[in-house]
């Protein structure tokens, strides 16, 4: 079934990707959306680059609109420096979401909640034992507001119902030629290029049609690509629409605000189009 009532479109962009065209596309969403700015510390760390706190603060001040939330500039592998950056931002009049990362003493979470109503939990992306870590840290968090950074396991979100989380999993269809479509009630149906080129099951084709995409288009190799352009490939349309649908379903039924991580103006634009698609189907 299509989404019958929509909340806002939740988009997260990391500072290194927040180029002028990306900000322009976010501006077009307006009051229909919630924009969260991530510092991009993890992205910069992987690239061997450094983000300067002053540059990050000036960028926030230069935005043509106020983000719904923005994270502190954490420092990967240096909890002390991360706390120092957070305190500096508070002193400068900012109200960032602090980030607790694996390796810090659990009592630090209580310190963060003294100055913020929500705390981000980092160190979850692609790490061994991340689910066990989530189980342990949520005992400490309790009923307080939390944001899981880069962690959105369907089962875990359904169980813990975090206040916020974010995901970039929606883009896997472009990277691996393997996608999945949301069927409702937490159920996903996986499929591949080969699946569509053969004879897909009726349940799958019906879901694809519900998303306004032709199954015949998905049977073509040429439709399994993506790019920052006005022309949408079939897999792009489907991926954006099904993840927006999932995002809306999660917030409606679990109360969790799931943010879809975007890195280009094209991705933000297509998320906006997907949101409008479901809005028009109400």
Task: Explain what this protein looks like in three dimensions.
By secondary structure, the protein is α/β, with parallel strands linked by helices. The chain is 44% helix and 17% strand. The chain is built from 13 helices and 10 strands. It has helices spanning 20-29, 41-46, 53-62, 79-91, 107-113, 130-141, 154-160, 172-176, 193-197, 202-210, 215-218, 234-254, 265-280, and strands at residues 9-14, 33-38, 69-70, 99-101, 118-122, 145-148, 164-167, 178-184, 187-192, 257-262. The strands form 2 sheets. The chain has an 8-stranded parallel beta sheet with strand order 3-2-1-10-7-6-5-4. Strand 1, helix 1 and strand 2 (33-38) form a beta-alpha-beta unit. The termini are close together. The model has no long low-confidence stretch (mean pLDDT 92).
